[in-house]
Here is the input.
Amino acid sequence: MSNDSVLDKSDPSVRETLTYDLAIVGAGPSGLACAVRLKQLDPGLSVCVLEKGASVGAHILSGAVIETQPLDELFPSWRNAPPPSCIEANAEQFWWLTRTGALRLPIPPQMRNKGNRIVSLGSLCAWMAQQAEQLEVEIFPGFAAAEVLIEREEVNGVRVGSFGVDRSGRAKPSHSLGVDIRARFTVLAEGCRGHLSKRLIHRYGLDGVGDPQGYGLGFKELWQVPDGRLRPGLVQHSIGWPLDNSTYGGGFLYHCDAQRVAVGLVIGLDYSRGEFSPFDVFRQFKHHPMVRALLEGGNILSGGARALSEGGYQSLPVCEMPGALLIGDAAGMLNVPKIKGVHNALRAGMLAAEHIVGTGDVAGFDARLRGCAVGHELKKVRNIRPGFRYGLWWGLSNALWETASGGRSPWTLRNRADHAVSARAAPPAGSIPDERRDLPPHDRAALAYFAAVAHEEDQPIHLRIRNPEMCTGECREKHDNPCTRFCPTQVFEMVDEAEGTGLRINASNCIHCKACDIKDPYQIVDWVPPEGGSGPNYRNL
Amino acid sequence: MKILVAAKRVVDPNLRVQVKPDASGIVTEGAGMSVNPFDEIALEEALRLRERGHAAEVVVVSIGPTQSRQQLRTCLAMGADRAILVETEVSLQPLGVSRALLRLVERERPTLVLLGKQSIDDESSQTAQMLAALWGRPQATSVSEVLIEGSCVRVTREVDAGMEVLELDLPAVISADLRLNEPRFVKLPDIVRAKRKPLDIHSLDELAIEGGNHPRHVHYSSPPARKRQIMVEDVPALLRSMRERGVIT
Ligand SMILES: Cc1cc2nc3c(=O)[nH]c(=O)nc-3n(C[C@H](O)[C@H](O)[C@H](O)COP(=O)(O)OP(=O)(O)OC[C@H]3O[C@@H](n4cnc5c(N)ncnc54)[C@H](O)[C@@H]3O)c2cc1C
Ligand code: SF4
Here is the structure.
């Protein structure tokens, strides 16, 4: 047996083992769809789902306007008793924003949302978890999969993280050793930049043939606003300000029920300006006259940020390995021009279940995935996102061409790794003056508050820096420590202390967005799961 | 000896509580729910008493909606031997809760009843006291230490002047303070095992609890937003600013 356990090595107490037919890591749409489908096809299978959030949905942050076809397939009668906060998208707008103005644009075909639903993915997942439990899937919220168990080169389960370990790694009186979950097959459904998925992709060389994965960082807040401002069912997207033409991204406003509106901004993590602070850019967006008019006088109910996989077809790793599968955003199945990943996550989850039940094996899943609707859809739009590397206008023209030709261009544009494109921080010249920016959260610590982060302080720091000298040396000189700017809740700070400048890690502010693991220019930050149940407690995000 | 522990389902203490836009209550949609933290402490103490050989059985009871099963399962996973749910969709006031508990006490005949000193949602801090009165047995509230000594229980309570030590005859009612202990982590295999432990369900009607006139909740509101702080130059500016705001005259 091999594992890369850091903790617990010296612990003499006996570790318990539970055995299942299938272990699924992550109670997002992909993991839950897989669990439900498995039990629908073969009620005799034992299936468990591990979820690091304190409850199912607590770590889920998405738009979300979703395509419902896979839901029809999975829960044929879902429309009779739909999940909470789920309304039909009935109108849409696409805007080009300037600093003070807004110009209405025609709606690009990928962005048409007729028939789609506006949901909170968090509550959709909580609802799906109930359906799964009725089928006797065992769901364990509050338990993170910390390690992969590998025997004779084959994945055969995961090790759950321990509880009650202090900052220096020693057992506290409350110490409780994580169990081993052995399973015939393990399904990694960790979402974007899953930490076990990352290790396995590396270990089995699953990304060997494709391009590096590309990422974005998405901010989202749910606001409750005074009566009469919203048009429930309206879907608004924007491009342009506050992002410059060389930075990919766009804003969204989804008008929900109960006087609530979801406001968000997705920013490509391949931005190159070192001084860029995604959090501040999202604040600017919220203060655009059009957005501000909706939010002012309202209350923010919940907010946070999460990375999303933007590499698409070119970057899709091989989604199978001995004993295990990768599904959903853990592999990167998001359709970027649509900014939709839920339908593909659901489809991949179902397909994984069908494949395992049908063949009794994981081998052959990757080919099936590429040959099904998920693969076809990703292939068709493969050239759109990479086109924006050459700027907004080039990107838009290329998108027009790719859409008109149905993705049949004989070429495929390549992706680059996001961390490789960080330029040195320029002095913040010409930055936008901080005019009336009074909507909360006022700073990044306040975002952690609205994310309702709960995190036991006395536990090992779950952001592991492989080479701390880099932070105070080369990274400081060449990049002025971009981690102090890209982290949405200011987990990283350079502080002057008696011994000199050092990196301070406020781990208890972490909202598990994974941006640091992705964007750090030297790739020396490893995000690992803290004690199960730690992290944000999102509500209806 | 048998210990009865009462546990309430409440909005997760880590969440920010939100008031409904029509001020009629608290938003529970999309909120994680948990066992009231003080009740968890009460349960932990009961489990420790059992582990020390003072008790043979720990029974946990909740009065609330059908979803309270979830919280009872958590209590079973922590180590309670069995659970009882008194199902009701109406939200009861402390008096109703203590009457229901009394019925269960009459059936179960525990030697000790342990509760949290208050629930973190309504913060009434009345149930333990009312139960003791209805039952006609001694009570100790907000307790930070529990020692069983034969047919007595010696408890320590924090009071303004220091520590108060009381000795009660058993059976008795004790409510737990934050200081009493630190509840254990639930282990994953115990969650699986808890599924096989008995969970009995009764309806409130079955227990024939009288209703009575309860106070009604009329209006909920969030605390007013704090005003932005300002920095003043010097003391005269401070005084001027205080006068302008009518803080001093
Ligand atoms: C801002 C934003 C807006 C979006 N808008 C839309 C939209 O409008 N429409 C749309 O269709 N898609 C949208 N998406 C994309 C969509 O959210 C994702 O494609 C989708 O959530 C992927 O599902 P998943 O199941 O693969 O992963 P996730 O939804 O990320 O779920 C993964 C789950 O696994 C858990 N987990 C991870 N690692 C571990 C571990 N080691 N142990 C235990 N648990 C673990 C996580 O806590 C999480 O609950 C958006 C994404 C973002 C960030
Ligand atoms: S520390 Fe990393 S994962 Fe945590 S919030 Fe900051 S950038 Fe995101």
Observations:
- The pocket of iron/sulfur cluster (ligand 2) is lined by residues A 463, 487-489, 491, 510-516, 527 (CB under 6 Å).
- The interface with chain A takes residues 12, 14-16, 18, 21, 29-32, 182, 184-189, 191-192 of chain B (CB under 8 Å).
- Chain B has a mean pLDDT of 93.
- The CA atoms of residues 98 and 130 of chain B lie 6 Å apart.
